[in-house]
Amino acid sequence: MISPEETTVIDLLRQREAELVKVWECEEGIRNLLGVTDFPYPAVPDLPSRRKVAKGASRRAVRRSGGCVDAATGQDAAPSAPPLRRLEGDETAYRLEFESRGRRESSFQTELDGVRKLFQIRSNEFTMLKVETVVFRTVDDWDLKETLWSKE
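Request: output the structure for the sequence above.
Response:
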């Protein structure tokens, strides 16, 4: 017979696995959205399960970070997106310009929340450069309406 503690551990491990699947789904979504096969994801945060605990120290004493962590410095970093607005009038998409692994690239996005989430990426290999609104027909056929934000 399984003890209540073992049942709880099994349930928590199942929950952990479900969350890791969500991370994988998010990463796949980003790759599909940008149309790339490889993406410069920030380093995985230091999970409590990977930390070595000194003898006599309690695992409960391990500090949990409530915010984002800058992949380069390992320090907490508050994600910030510039003030962007929803599409208006005949605008049908956002055109994003970014630098990825030293190459300037562009992509289109229709959801404002998706654009804002890209600004939360903290990586030396990914930098958002510009956000524009466009009238989109195809990847090669679109009209610029307005530049909402530019790093340059």
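Confidence is low (pLDDT under 50) at residues 59-78.
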